[in-house]
């Protein structure tokens, strides 16, 4: 496995990261432990989680993923030193009434307490990377595309958020910090405030990036490049749409086959990945892959694995076969012909899962 530095942090991570948001709902604890063992054995020693996982989140299951990982670590002495472990603090409430009593803000003290709670669940003294899961300020995200100034409300400043993250770094509880679901403005402002006040610089941003959502290339990639911030690409398979498993029957639940995440959870079908336009676009990319002798998943992953914008690609799996397929796609090179056709399709349909 190849490794890369996250931003200017000095933290080296594998080019493939195992996402864990299925652990605790779609994946049992025993199976999750086996998947992590296998991933590490194959060189994927970078794990990403969050306090709100598993997804879709609920009052009954949130935080379970971190606890599953914590018990995995506790049962394997020495494993903590072998892996890079990342987690995230949830931003202001988005209908999740069980997180911080539905607070519309995320204060510095909230960040400190959330990190300490994550450390206890994960049964570790430190996190290699700690990220703000989504912006505290008003910003279009998770499928929204228009900024509405009328939605602005007083919230904790970026300075306060960075100050709290800086305390965690100084106390040795966090090695590097990052953001998630951010905008070009957010990246630039976090860097500016950090440099102005001598606070830790963000190392990375975790945003969606795949064939049906290349919105990173609409200005965020330049911002990250010029400020020395790395991209952690999530949903490289478009929530499963880019595997081809929904091509024939669609995303609604069907009998006779093992249901994917989109079919299992109605809340997922109501999000950007469930748009009819997203499935229609995925079908075109999947057909292109097959025309060139590849599985849809291999082409979609190779696209992310080889893009200059991507530092590490976060893969999410529910079984060992998927994990091996995702890792085996590493090293696949897409021909100029395929890349040109990918760009031609995007020119027509843009980013339907943005």
From TrEMBL:
- Please state what the protein is called: Aldo/keto reductase
- What keywords tag this UniProt record? Oxidoreductase
- Species whose genome carries this gene: Caldimonas thermodepolymerans
What's the domain of life for this entry?
A: Bacteria
User: Per its UniProt record, what InterPro entries does this chain match?
Assistant: AKR_Detox_Biosynth (IPR050523), NAD(P)_OxRdtase_dom_sf (IPR036812), NADP_OxRdtase_dom (IPR023210)
- One MF term in GO for this entry? oxidoreductase activity
Presence of keyword Signal:
no
Q: Has UniProt tagged this entry with the keyword Oxidoreductase?
A: yes
Q: Which CDD domains match?
A: AKR_Tas-like
């Amino acid at each position: 496995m190849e490794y890369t530095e996250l931003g200017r942090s000095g933290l080296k991570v594998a080019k493939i990261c195992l996402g864990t948001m299925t652990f605790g709902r779609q994946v049992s604890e025993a199976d999750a432990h086996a998947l992590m063992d296998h991933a590490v054995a194959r060189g994927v020693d970078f794990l990403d989680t969050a306090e709100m996982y598993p997804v879709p989140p609920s009052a009954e299951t949130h935080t379970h993923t971190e606890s599953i990982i914590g018990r995995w670590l506790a049962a394997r002495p020495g494993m903590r030193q072998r892996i890079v472990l990342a987690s995230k603090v949830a931003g202001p409430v988005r209908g999740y009434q069980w997180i911080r009593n539905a607070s519309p803000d995320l204060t510095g003290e909230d960040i400190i307490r959330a990190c300490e709670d994550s450390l206890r669940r994960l049964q570790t003294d430190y996190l290699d990377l700690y990220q703000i899961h989504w912006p505290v300020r008003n910003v279009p995200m998770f499928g929204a595309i228009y900024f509405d100034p009328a939605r602005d409300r007083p919230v904790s400043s970026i300075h306060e958020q960075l100050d709290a993250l800086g305390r965690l770094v100084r106390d040795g509880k966090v090695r590097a910090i990052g953001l998630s679901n951010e905008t070009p403005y957010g990246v630039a402002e976090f860097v500016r405030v950090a440099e102005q006040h001598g606070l830790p610089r963000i190392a990375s941003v975790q945003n969606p990036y795949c064939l049906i959502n290349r919105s990173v290339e609409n200005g965020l990639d330049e911002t990250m490049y010029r400020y020395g911030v790395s991209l952690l690409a999530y949903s490289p398979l478009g929530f499963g749409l880019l595997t081809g498993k929904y091509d024939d029957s669609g995303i609604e639940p069907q009998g006779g086959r093992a249901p994917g995440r989109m079919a299992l959870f109605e809340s997922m079908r109501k999000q950007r990945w469930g748009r009819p336009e997203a499935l229609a676009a995925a079908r075109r990319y999947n057909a292109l892959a097959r025309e060139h002798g590849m599985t849809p998943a291999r082409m979609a992953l190779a696209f992310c694995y080889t893009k200059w914008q991507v530092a590490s690609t976060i893969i999410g799996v529910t079984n060992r076969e998927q994990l091996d397929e995702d890792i085996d796609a590493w090293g696949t090179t897409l021909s100029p012909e395929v890349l040109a056709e990918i760009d031609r399709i995007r020119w027509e349909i843009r980013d339907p899962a943005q």
